[in-house]
Design goal:
Catalyzes the decarboxylation of oxaloacetate coupled to Na(+) translocation. The protein is mostly helical and 194 residues long. Helix content is 74%, strand content 0%.
């Protein structure tokens, strides 16, 4: 999808170095985000709260040991337990149902649409921006962290071996995570209201 919607010239666009973000901004971002979500969309607050709490732990530098544990050991343990618990419930006669396969197909279509929309939006932004944006980073807007950003970087490196897009692509990638969590909160709000 990414290669089909971009030209070789567009994939070679080198983006300017981003400004350095101050420590104050790094600490204020999760606090303000959580406050806004808690006020406007309380159903999404627990999910985004964990995201913001982890970010705040890392950026504050106050709880270095806890932050290191959460980033390394704990995330691996939680991933294993999540995989085991989901896998234990995943019996073939329940999983291979038309509804389940339909949901998987919808997920694939959603990823495709998200990738295409991100690339096309970046191309649209290039029409009115003085600093050109590599359209490949638009595809990282899907909330598959960090693989979507890595794929954008890999495709960019195939066109220009010195064009590193990873850090540029992480912005849309994290924005996709935040957007997905907020969308889930909106859905929860309306589904639970029914």
């Amino acid at each position: 999808i990414m290669k089909a919607l971009t030209t070789e010239k567009e994939r070679k666009i080198r983006m300017v170095q981003l400004r350095t973000v101050s420590k104050r901004e790094k600490i204020l971002f999760p606090a303000v985000l959580l406050l806004l979500v808690a006020l406007l969309l309380p159903d999404a607050a627990p999910l985004l709260g964990m995201f913001c709490f982890g970010n705040l732990m890392r950026e504050s530098g106050v709880v270095e040991r806890l932050s290191d544990t959460v980033q390394n050991g704990l995330i691996n343990i939680v991933t294993i337990f999540l995989g085991l618990s989901v896998g234990a419930k995943l019996v073939a006669d329940k999983f291979l149902q038309p509804q389940t396969l339909g949901i998987l197909l919808l997920g694939v279509v959603a990823f495709g649409i998200g990738t295409a929309a991100g690339v096309l939006m970046a191309k649209l932004l290039n029409l009115c921006s003085k600093n050109k944006i590599n359209p490949l980073i638009g595809s990282a807007g899907v909330s598959a962290v960090p693989m979507a950003a890595r794929v954008s970087n890999k495709v960019g490196l195939e066109s220009d071996a010195q064009n590193f897009l990873l850090m540029h692509a992480m912005g849309p990638n994290v924005a996709g995570v935040i957007g997905s969590a907020i969308a889930a909160g909106v859905m929860l709000k309306y589904v639970l209201a029914m």
